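Problem: given the chain below (133 residues), write out its structure.
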Amino acid sequence: MRYGSMFGPNITFLGIPECDVNEANTYKDTDVVIIGAPFDGGTSYRSGARLGPSAIRGTDYLPHDGSRPHLAARVDGLKDIVVKDAGDVEMFSGDINKSCAALEVVVEKVAKSGAIPLILGGDHTVTWPNATG
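Solution.
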């Protein structure tokens, strides 16, 4: 699993804690695990969906002080549930089958733990391994 950009700190969704899907104890008792699926090999016209997970994380990046001041309702739903970010699944540009298989394995691990996998895509191709994992 990969996090953030090549340089600088790991950027997680809303500054939430990281976890490693290969280490079940890092997401034990977690309600939701966020998984990035940077893939756009299924697009037929405009590429760029592979940049989605990092763009979402970068846009909503918050300091690690836990404050989320941009929430208009002033209610922090992340205090009621435990959410962790597993980073991005390694996807293989041009190889839909291999990429889908990699995502399916990660989704299955998270689902078997009892947590809900929440996928940040990617193109529409990532829907299938999310449903089958």
